[in-house]
Specification:
alpha+beta; Fumarylacetoacetate hydrolase, domain 2; 20 strands; 13-stranded mixed sheet; single chain
Length: 297
């Protein structure tokens, strides 16, 4: 099942895509709950509440898709260097953070950082670059996990029972800020640096053993890998984060990006105004965003 947050005639709603993908069936989550997008549906589903259709289906072509969770309830959990080839390209480039861990290409434990909720944008929205802040903005295609039933000290063996579904995240990153500040929060959390979408899919739709992730910039294929290449699988990530932090329904975990990011090329291929970024994950869909400059002033 695919769940979208969308605007129609100026009103935000949540709905279920029809099997042919051509229409959205709105669901009734109440006026206030609708403002939190699909997060309201996840919370209601986890709580055992009924979800009813509201009105007639609407053609997909008539709506504006938004980020499925337009404003996550708290920071997005992210995983660094979780594909071996990407960890190695970071080490070769010398352009990541200036931490000592860069000397060891493949991490021995998950590297966890966060992006602030305000960085989230939706399909078709612009990734905006401010040249006065960063000149080395990069893309990172990622599979993102949406937590359903929360919990603390979740065992790896039961971790997938706590997953509601999945979506796509582009973990846009200011590489120069990463290195300058010797941490990742600022470089990862700039406004518009977390495109998300196009919708959520329930966990039964995705084969975690071998799901293909690809990213194109201006039609050039840059990233192409599968989840079989993950260093730390999703159950391990959930167990690691929840060991001391209680996960909540609707929490988002971005699971890491494959090799092929801009800083890995020689010379680097950082994003520029006018670029078009397309991320596709099998069984989920396609997330596309243009790159633009912030308006002067």
């Amino acid at each position: 099942m695919r769940i979208a947050t969308f605007s129609h005639r100026g009103i935000r709603s949540v709905g279920r895509l029809t099997p042919d993908g051509k229409q959205i069936q709105p669901v009734d989550l109440g006026g206030i709950a609708q403002q939190s997008g699909a997060l309201a549906l996840v919370q209601r589903a986890v709580g055992g509440g009924a979800i009813h259709d509201l009105g007639a289906p609407i053609a997909l072509a008539e709506v504006k898709l938004e980020a499925p969770i337009p404003h996550p309830r708290r920071n997005i959990f992210c995983i660094g260097k979780n594909y071996r080839a990407h960890a190695e390209e970071v080490a070769r480039s010398g352009k990541g953070s200036a931490s000592a861990s860069d000397k060891d290409p493949v991490p021995t434990a998950p590297i966890v950082f966060t992006k602030v909720p305000e960085s989230v944008i939706g399909p078709g929205d612009a990734i905006r670059i401010d040249p006065s802040v960063s000149s080395k903005v990069d893309y990172e295609a990622e599979l993102a996990v949406i937590i359903g039933r929360g919990g603390r000290r979740i065992a790896k063996e039961q971790a997938l029972e706590h997953v509601w579904g999945y979506t796509i995240v582009n973990d846009v990153t200011a590489r120069d800020m990463q290195r300058r500040h010797q941490q990742w929060l600022l470089g990862k959390s700039q406004d518009t640096f977390c495109p998300m979408g196009p919708w959520l899919v329930t966990r039964d739709e995705v084969d975690l053993a071998d799901t293909r992730i690809r990213c194109w910039v201006n039609g050039e294929l840059r990233q192409d890998a599968t989840t079989a290449d993950l260093i730390f699988d999703i159950p391990t990530l959930i167990a690691t984060i929840s060991a001391g932090i209680t996960l909540l329904p609707g929490d988002v975990i971005a699971t890491g990006t494959p090799a092929g990011v801009g800083m890995g090329f020689e010379p680097p291929k950082y994003l520029q105004a006018g670029d078009h970024v397309k991320v596709e994950i099998a069984r989920i869909g396609v997330l596309e965003n243009k790159v633009a400059l912030w308006d002067a002033g």
